[in-house]
Amino acid sequence: MTLEELKHQISGFLKANHSQEFTAQNLADGLRMTSIAEYKRVVNAMDALVRDGELTFDAGKYQYNPNTGYTLGAYRANDKGFGFVKYDDELPDFFINPENTLQAMQGDQVRVSTIKPSPSPDRGPEGKVEEILEHAYENIVGTFSLGSEVKDMIGELKISDKKAINFKVLIDKTGLSPNDGQVVVAEVTRFPDKVHPRELVAHVTETLGYKDEPGMDILQIVHAKKVPSEFPKEVLDEAAKIPTDVQDSDWAGREDITDQTLVTIDGADTKDIDDAVVAWKLDNGNYHLGVHIADVSHYVTEGSLIDAEAYHRGTSVYLTDRVIPMLPRNISNGIASLNPNVARLAMSAEMEINPAGKIVSHRLHTSVIKSHARMTYDAVNKILEGDVFVQEEYAQLTPMFKVMGELHEILYNMRKKRGAIEFDAPEAQIIVDNDGKAVDIKLRERGTAERMIESFMLAANETVAEHFDKLDVPFLYRIHETPDEERAKSFFEFSKALGHPVYGDPSKVTPTMLQQLMSDVAGDPAEQMISTMMLRAMKQAKYSPDPVGHFGLGASYYTHFTSPIRRYPDLTVHRLIKWYAKHGLGVASQAKYADKLAQIGEDTSTRERRAIDTERDVDALKKAEYMLDKVGLEFEGVINSALKFGLFISLENTVEGLVHISNLTDDHYEYDEGHAALIGRSKHRIFQIGQKVRVKVLRVNKEERTVDFMLVNPESAPTTAIRVASKSAGKFGKGRNRDERRKNERRGKSEGPKPKRGPLDAKQGQKRDSKRNF
Question: pTM to 2 decimals?
Answer without folding.
Answer: 0.83
